Amino acid sequence: MNSATEENNTLQIASLEALDQAMTGDLPSIIAGDFNASANEEDAVNFDTMAALDSLGWRVDSPMDGRSMSDGEPIVIDYIVSKNAETWEVVDDDIFNEEGAIEASDHLPVSVTYRLAD
Fold first, then answer.
1. What CA–CA distance (Å, rounded) separates 51 from 45?
2. What letter would DSSP give residue 57?
3. 93 forms bridges with which residues in the sheet?
4. How far is the C-alpha of 91 from the C-alpha of 115, rounded, in Å?
5. pLDDT digits over 36-57, tens only?
6. Mean pLDDT within 85-108
7. Percent of residues, the chain, with pLDDT higher than 90
8. What is the largest CA-CA distance in the chain?
9. Stretch 82-111: mean pLDDT
10. How far apart are CA 56 and CA 99, in angstroms?
11. Parallel, antiparallel or unpaired: strands 59-60 and 78-83
């Protein structure tokens, strides 16, 4: 990892920690976006960011395998994560790689469908 990547990774983790500390109460919360990190350690792409989320109690609800970039390596760096969402059941998750999605952005749309657990 070069020094610029390491610095960005450190800043990203600090930002996630600050966000987590700013949360009040136990309301369910979602963060969705491009984390520029893989939840799979063997991918060796800023895994520290995803490990930090895990240590703060965030759960990855979107697919962790496949590809979320419209070009490049088969790696997922875009996620939907939740916290305090034990009553939310993930009933569907997907990364859309249809032709229109591939042309619209360098990132593929990621989705999660939740159902309130009984």
1. 12
2. T
3. 112
4. 7
5. 889 888 888 889 999 999 999 9
6. 87
7. 52
8. 48
9. 88
10. 36
11. antiparallel
